[in-house]
Amino acid sequence: MKLSGPSRLCWLALTLWVAAPVRANEDPAPSDRPEDTPAQPAEPVPAADAPAAAPADEARPVENWLEAQVELARRGFSGGSIDGVRGPQSAAALRAFQRGAGLAETGDLDKATRESLLLTAPAFTQHLLTAEEKATIQPLAPTWLGKSEQSALAYTSVLELVAELYHASPNFVRRLNPAVNWDDLLPGVLLKVPAVGHVTVTGRAAQLQVRLAAHELEATDDTGRVIAHFPVSIARMVEKRPLGELHVTVVIPDPNYTFDPEVFPESPEARELGRKLIVPPGPNNPVGVAWIGLDRTGYGIHGTPDPEKIGRTESHGCFRLANWDARTLLGLAWTGLPVMVEP
Questions:
Q1: How does pLDDT run across 280-311, given as a tens digit for each residue?
Q2: Which residue in 12, 63, 124, 310 has its CB near the most CB atoms, within 10 A?
Q3: Is the model's pTM score more than 0.70?
Q4: Parallel/antiparallel/unpaired status of strands 300-302 and 290-294
């Protein structure tokens, strides 16, 4: 299959290896499976478990934006990287929560919102760095050939690992742990982190909506209620932004990536290689930890190794999410799920 134009950068159907069972209502058809088997990925770092909900009589209204970001993230309303600051993405997540709760969409922590958004567990927890986690850290090769020869495109530092596990800005994690020397961490150290882990959204998605101008992706149930919200990056070029109704065709966790030199004619390395490469799975894979393919050639929803850039117009046509949001969306997506793309 030959694809034309920049959107080929996002296309994974050429070669994909499924590292875990497809989390969808149907397995992909045999034609969706790869003909060649690339290198096996290393074992992924387990995602942190979400904190247990507090008893109803212990839950209380959130008091500040840090608590709001944490509690919204636990419920599937992502405001991007947690940093304790009211930014545009945090305000958008709060408006989505307000809309789903039948509240006025102020984007502010007004009295009615705080009474509805109850903190179900402490906002902070501790992460114990294990020897197994430390052993997965490896540098990222600067070339495509080097990347293809790695066992996995794993986290490059403990800071990157911890920040991504807990949906946080790396700088915020640094501020929470001012005495930590991040260049010389040993297993057994305890790190203060936001108390957000793997998120499982309650309810079944009946439709995904992508609002291009707002840089938002939302999941709604069969009543139209918003059950999840994520900031998303879109294509810089207007002509590369699809509009109208699309559908999910495949749902793949931890995909690999095919580097096609024809897609990168400006690259000296690509011109010299003259052949495709299979880049292994991992959080630093070009499409992150998830690929949700759409029925428009070359388009999909996927993760990214650069969560701090989410919300910008930088992709080649696909819809990019932070890796933690992409994993959450994997639990909601199913083959045939409608995806409405609005201006």
A1: 999 999 999 999 999 988 789 999 989 988 97
A2: 310
A3: yes
A4: antiparallel
Residues in the chain: 343
Structure tokens at 129: 């760095």
CA distance 217 to 236: 17
Helix (H, G, I), strand (E, B) or coil at 60: strand
How many H-runs (helices) and E-runs (strands) does the chain carry? 9, 16
Residue 197, classed as helix, strand or coil, is coil
Residues 107 and 95: their CA atoms lie apart, in Å, by 5
* CA distance linking residue 241 with residue 314, whole number of Å: 11
Over residues 218-241, the mean pLDDT reads 85
Residues 199, 34: Cα–Cα separation, whole Å = 30
CA distances from 282 to 138, 168, 324 (A): 11, 18, 13
